[in-house]
Amino acid sequence: MLIKRPRGWELQDAAATPEAAVMGRRAVLQGFSVIGAGALASGFGLHRAQAEDADPTADLYPAKRNAKWVPGRDVTPEEFNLKYNNFYEFGSDKEIHDRAQALKVRPWTIKIGGLVEKPLEMQFDDLVRKMPLEERVVRHRCVEAWAMTVPWSGFPLAALVALAKPLGSAKYVRFETFLDPKMAPAQGLDFGYPWPYVEGLSIAEATHELSFIATGAYGKPLPKQMGAPLRLHTPWKYGFKSIKSITRIDFVEARPKSFWEAINANEYGFWANVNPAVTHPRWSQAQERLLGTGGLLGSETAPTLIYNGYGEWVASLYAGMDGEKLFM
C-alpha cells in the first residue's frame, strides 16, 4: 500500500489563502499616512484596466506554471491582493492602491553595476524579454503575522545574476528602488526614513532557485501597488525582503544595510528568515493570519512554519552561521 508522507510545508487545501492580498513591505512602524497626493480621479478598476491595456509586455502573460512549487494552500483571491498593500513610498497604511497609480513605469531603466565584468543599463521591456518567464504559486509571510499565497510571474533571480556576470569578489547583491518625491510624496516627508529603499541578499541567496524577480501576478503584468514593473520575492523570508519597483542592482563585497535594518536593527535584521520560535519584540510569530479567508483581513489562522515552509530547500544556505542573527 502506498503511504504518502506530507512534507513539512504542506497543509490541507482548505487552509489555503484564496487568490489575493498582496503586500509590499511591512507596515510595522507606525508612520505616516499620505492622503490623496497621487490619487487619480477615476475609479481604481479603470486605472488598472488602462495600465494593462497600455502595457507592452502584456503578451508575455500568463506564463507557463512551474509545478515544482506547491504552496499547500489555496491562492489568495486577487481582489484582496489588489487592495491590501505595503508600499511605504506612497504611505504607511494598507489602502495605497489608488495613490500608487501615480507610479510612472514607462520608461523604466534598470542599472546593473558594481563588481561586474561590465556595467549594464537596460529598459525593463527589453530585460524582461531576455529572461525565462514562468509562474510560481508560492507563499508570502509578512512580519506583521499575516500571510497570503500568490501566483507570481517572472524569472529566477539567478538568470539576472548570470546576465550581470559578477566578479568573484562580489559577496552580496544590493537592490535599490526609485527616488522621486513628486511621484511618491511619502519620500518627501521628514520621518528620518533612508530613501531610496534598499534591500540586499547574499550571492548564495540570490542564485538560489527559489529567489525570484516578479514582473506579473495572477496571469497579468504586475500592478503598480504591488511594485511594478519588477520586484523581489524570496518566499522563505519575511515580506520586508521584497523590494518593489527596482531601478538599480549592484554586486558588492560588503553587506549592504537594508532599509528596515537602517531604521531599527534591533527589530529587523539583514537575513530576515521566517522562524515561528523567534518573536518580534512586540508580538508573537507563532501563528499567521490567512488573508482572504472569510474576508480581507482573514478569519483563519495557521501555525507559522520555519523558513515559511521552504526549509528543505533553503536551510542549507545558513549552515555554519550560528553567530548570525538569521531570523527577524
Number of helices: 7
- Could you give the distance between the termini? 43 Å
Number of strands: 12
Shape: globular
- Return residue spans where pLDDT drops below 50 for at least 5 consecutive residues: 1-52
Using the CA coordinates, give the radius of gyration.
19 Å
Largest sheet: 7 strands, mixed
Order of helices and strands: HHEEHEEHEEHEEEEHEEH
What features would you highlight for this structure?
five-stranded mixed beta sheet, 7 helices, alpha+beta, globular, seven-stranded mixed beta sheet, 328 residues, disordered N terminus, 20% strand
Element layout with pairings:
Blueprint: H1 44-54, H2 78-81, E1 109-114, E2 120-123, H3 124-130, E3 134-141, E4 146-156, H4 157-164, E5 172-177, E6 198-202, H5 203-206, E7 212-217, E8 220-221, E9 231-233, E10 246-252, H6 259-263, E11 287-290, E12 300-303, H7 311-314
Parallel strand pairs: 1-10, 4-11
Antiparallel strand pairs: 1-2, 3-4, 4-7, 5-6, 5-10, 7-8, 7-9, 11-12
